[in-house]
Design a protein that fits this description.
Number of helices: 14
Strand content: 15-25%
């Protein structure tokens, strides 16, 4: 039997074998879920836990929430403390969700109509968050964060609304407390994930998903003043027929892991097809694929050495002459629900950056759009 350690080493090498190469030491930091509600408050977390929902067993339910002013201040302090050879700080490519459900309007419709609101509107109702979007924009101007598109919402609208209409107990309890991100394993429900927003079960859903993508990208431009040129699908789950839709809406770079879960339900089967990808691959002869090959997710396992694990991933990427693209979700830096989560992880992030600069002083920090432009320009010239 192959050990988990050997299996992981094999995977690390496989994902770096094919595709675009460079001798430059480039580091990308990819972070998902910014703008998404997830857990509304510590009070809601405790209420749901006492009601029997195992929210304490899922770090996304336990820690993830809107970034407060304090969260952003402390994160930006860490990022701004480091500089690469070009005097650039590490920059987080913040993959953003643009809207959240409007719970009041959905309830007023007796659960017959889905309604949403921009995340900037949701922020206004949260404590410790009134100035956070201004701080967010300051972080953009300081080149500490670079927003890109992650989805209109981080919820499978049809699946969730159907469960609400059927008055599914745990889903309804979560809804009544302004929460939708309940994990499948933490509730007494047999169902598919609510979080995979682009999953589908019938061909009839395609047109609505197309509209969701187009509207989400337009909302991104409305909020940030520029089009997003990259996209990563929630849950790494999307259908290939959506790729031309993304391209027509201005997206040029599709991001994810080296394995994609493509819904197979609509073709008369169940489950998902696996599509394999590599860095610089052209998808549908239009989009370039950017692959994540390093991981720093300390909230997922507090007892695991994520710093060394990520450094090994970076070393492996550089040995294959590949950029190191680090996956690190928002929840790792949030203390709004539980300050100990943020306070544990930010020192680890500082150690990671210190070690990167110590081991590879020629390193260059970039956002994912800059990397995509570098790859596409080279392929165009060739």
């Amino acid at each position: 039997m192959i050990s988990p350690e050997l299996k992981q080493k094999v995977t690390n090498n496989i994902q770096n074998v094919l595709g675009w190469r460079t001798k430059r030491k480039i580091v990308i930091i990819e972070s998902d879920d910014w703008g998404n509600i997830r857990m509304p408050s510590k009070e809601v977390y405790e209420l749901l836990r006492k009601a029997g929902l195992r929210v304490d067993e899922d770090p996304y339910n336990k820690y993830d929430a809107f970034s407060s002013e304090d969260d952003l201040t402390k994160l930006f302090e860490v990022l701004s403390a480091f500089k690469d050879k070009n005097e650039n700080s590490p920059v987080i490519t913040a993959n953003c969700i643009m809207v959240n459900p409007d719970f009041d309007k959905i309830r007023e419709s007796n659960f017959q109509e889905y309604h949403f609101e921009l995340f900037t509107e949701t922020l206004k109702r949260y404590p410790q968050h009134s100035n956070s979007f201004k701080m967010w924009k300051d972080g953009i101007s300081q080149k500490l964060i670079y927003p890109q598109f992650h989805g209109r919402e981080h919820i499978n609208v049809k699946r969730w609304m159907k469960a609400l209409q059927e008055n599914i107990k745990d889903t309804r309890l979560a809804f009544d407390n302004g929460f939708f991100g309940i994990s499948t394993g933490n509730a007494g429900e047999l169902r598919s994930s609510y979080m995979a927003s682009l999953d589908l079960e019938t061909d009839e859903e395609k047109n609505n998903l197309k509209l969701i993508i187009e509207e989400g990208l337009n909302l991104f431009e409305q909020v940030y003043g520029f089009r997003s040129v990259s996209f990563i699908a929630p849950g790494y789950t999307w259908s290939s027929w959506l790729e031309p839709v993304l391209y027509d809406s201005g997206v040029r770079y599709l991001k994810g892991n080296f394995i994609q879960a493509e819904p197979a339900h609509s073709s008369g089967t169940t489950g998902y097809k696996r599509r394999f990808h590599y860095l610089g691959q052209q998808i549908n002869h239009q989009l370039y694929y950017l692959i994540r090959n390093c991981f720093f997710e300390p909230s997922q396992n507090e007892n695991f050495d994520w710093v060394n694990y990520c450094l090994h991933g970076i070393d492996n990427a550089f040995r294959w002459h590949k950029p190191a693209s680090i996956s690190t979700h928002r929840l790792n830096y949030i203390g709004f629900i539980d300050q100990s989560n943020r306070n544990r992880n930010l020192p680890k992030l500082k150690t990671l950056f210190s070690e990167i600069l110590k081991r590879w002083p020629e390193v260059e920090f970039m956002n994912s759009a800059q990397l995509g432009d570098l790859i596409s320009r080279q392929y165009t010239l060739n």
